[in-house]
Fold:
Amino acid sequence: MHAPSSNRYTAVAILLHWAIAGLILFMIWLGWNMEDNEARFQLHKSIGIAILFLSVARVTWRWLNPPPPLPDDMTPWEKRLSHGVHVGFYALMIALPLLGWLLVSTSKFQVSTVLFGTVSWPHLPFTEGLRGGVVHEVTEFLHSKGAWVLIVLLGLHVAGAIKHEVAAEQGVFKRMIPGLFGRAHSPAPARGYVTAFGAAVLLFAVIAAVPLMKSSPSSPAGPGTTGAVPAEAGNWEIDPATSEIAFSGMYQGKPFSGTFSRWDANVLFDPDNLESSAVEVEVYPGTASTGTKLYDDTLQGGEWFDTNTFPVVKVSLINFAASAEGGYRAEASLLVKEKAVNVPFDFSLIIEGDTATFEGTTTLSRAGLNLGQQSDPGGDWVADKVTVTVKGTATRKE
Structure:
């Protein structure tokens, strides 16, 4: 025997219905109010992905737990229209987030996606050759027009619900109100909790794991060995616990700063023999940390440091000379993504016995290093000039 049908949706269906509805309404407002606002743009992407996976769970749940039948006093054309609106809704609730994901993946700007400031989200695979082309333009058109179709369907859905509540028909709105009405008509027993939510959670986890699997190759242990200063020739050992390489600049008129947590240096320096002095440094840009995950992920991206292809930035200090201010100046040669740049590096140095304390600074040009030149070549978002500061202590080798 089949269980008697109910005129109530299950509690899970009701919860998913109102959660998705609230997110969609907020997304409509957000889509009209996020221009030139990075935080809202990231939130728009985050909520879109949330809607996608809630919709996967909702469709699966609906398949396992069919909804109650429409009221008998609805005409056939009303039932067909109601069914069509629901099918359109479910299609768009999945298609629009996917189109948005494709839109971001094929954009020439390649802005990283970090869901709710916490979870790194990858671009769709196999989209590298589609960036900024016709696929992106078509996707942008479909995403924009699809949002308007969703708004029209939303209007029809609300109008239909109101019509059936005020007309001489069986109301349908009360079937979707959580707990307040219809307690005398409890929904049929629900099933498929693990299937509906497990599938959505598993799919989310698999995709979210992609950035972790694509992390930069592990850096080799031990001091850097770029060649100019053999390891055995170095006469100073830098203390990593008291030393750092930091960077700072301006983003949208506000200062930002960060550090590289992994770098190696081989130092040959003698204040009495500056001509023979040299320093070799290997910096691992994949360890850049600004305190904001979105910035950290973006720095690792292809148009910035491209850490998957170029895991190491090499720096050589040569041509040391004493400066008039009592410090020193050297020529810093940087190799970033096979782009070589030479800049002056000024630093102070105090040697007391076998301990040296140093602090230096230089200014770099993003344009000169080919960093962020697709999305922000004019420095409209991130200022072109970035200051790099090096400080710490070193101990003389025996």
